[in-house]
Amino acid sequence: MAAGVSYMNSAVETSSENSVHDSDKEAAREIQYSLVPAGGLRVYGAEVAFRFSPFAEVGGDFLDFFSLPNGLVGLYIGDVVGKGLSAAMYAALVMGTLRGINKTGEDTPGVLELLNKRLLVRPVRGRYCATIYALFDPASRQLAFSNAGMPHPVLVSQGRFSRLGDGGVPSGIFGGTTYEKYSVRLSPGDSVLFATDGLHELRNHRNEDFGWDRLGELWSECGKKAADESLEHVFAGAKLFSSSSGQFDDITAVALTVPVEAEHSARTPLSAAASLCIPEPIVELPVCAAISL
Fold first, then answer.
1. Mapping DSSP to helix (H, G, I), strand (E, B) and coil, where does residue 246 land?
2. Which residues contact 101 (CB under 8 A, 6 or more apart)?
3. CATH: 3.40.718.10, 3.30.70.120, 3.40.50.2000, 3.60.40.10. Which one for 41-281?
4. Residue 23 pLDDT greater than 80, yes or no
5. Radius of gyration for the chain, computed over Cα atoms and rounded to the nearest angstrom
6. Measured between alpha carbons, how far is 228 from 262 in angstroms, rounded to an integer?
7. At residue 256, what are phi and psi to the nearest 5 degrees?
């Protein structure tokens, strides 16, 4: 009898602990999703959309994009080593640090160098992150970015895809790290895909990687679609490719497109063009823009 009571008490305690654990995981998930944008971004001459899909309830990927006071569009995307709650906590630390830097007027290499420096002030053992920080000028259509260990961005222009720039040392490892600045002038109808390695490294039933070529071909097929439609097309293809294997890592992607109508902006008087450069949320995007592969 006593053994039975003891067993019942133990079972109740275990159930209670599991309930608390589930509640904590759900709270962590809500907090992480509150850190990603509530929707896309559209200004005259640029459109940004995203997808965010943690492998577990929470993950180590992160992203943000925003309009800056000087008229530029800023964006960053990154990937913390590891998965789960500890990676998500470090990702929140990185995002908080970046949000304190991106309004300082630093150029893209300076932002990543300052991020690296600040992460090393209070280093977390075994934690670091890959990050891309980019700035886009809708008026000149000039894209500049610096890369701290992320997969190369993929540009599609005139139906052909190419990888942009080189990698770099991830943030939070070595003091004094410097970063290169890469620039490209986009044309109306061009699109750039920034993505974490969880997308490139999806596998099918033959144990083949999704890889750069498949990703580039899918991205090329998007033509002059809107940013969100382009991501929908790519992720549908990725899901079809990996349907028998599923997702094994966090997957995050940001699309930057230059709408075809931006071609006419060069003929628009400056005063009229300036009146059109107003950030406008894309209302159709769901709050989390989450996917499931």
1. coil
2. 111, 114, 115, 118
3. 3.60.40.10
4. no
5. 21
6. 17
7. -115, 120
Judge whether residue 59 has pLDDT over 50: yes
Both tokens of 111, joined, read 């932002």
Name 246's Cβ contacts closer than 8 Å, sequence gap at least 6: 293
100 to 45, 96, 148, 168, 207: CA distances (angstroms):
27, 6, 18, 22, 42
The answer to whether residue 122 scores a pLDDT higher than 60 is yes
In the predicted model, what is the mean pLDDT of residues 233-246?
A: 79
Task: Give the C-alpha separation, 239 to 251, whole Å.
Answer: 12
Q: Is the distance from CB of 211 to CB of 200 less than 8 angstroms?
A: yes
Domain ranges of the chain: 41-281
Is 49 within 8 Å of 63 (Cβ atoms)?
Answer: no
Checking if the pLDDT of 233 tops 70, the result is yes
b/e string for 192-215 if b means 16 or more Cβ within 10 A?
bbbbbbbbbebbeeeeeebeeebb
Query: Can you give the pLDDT at residue 281?
Result: 39
Q: Which residues contact 5 (CB under 8 A, 6 or more apart)?
A: none
CA 65 to CA 53: how far, in whole Å?
17
The model's pLDDT over 97-118, given as tens digits with 9 standing for 90+, comes to: 998 887 666 899 999 999 999 9
Q: Is 223 helix (H, G, I), strand (E, B) or coil?
A: coil
Cα 85 from Cα 26, distance rounded (Å): 11
Q: Which residues pair with 75 in a beta bridge?
A: 65, 134
Q: What is the pTM of this model?
A: 0.80
Residue at token pair 């070595």: 174
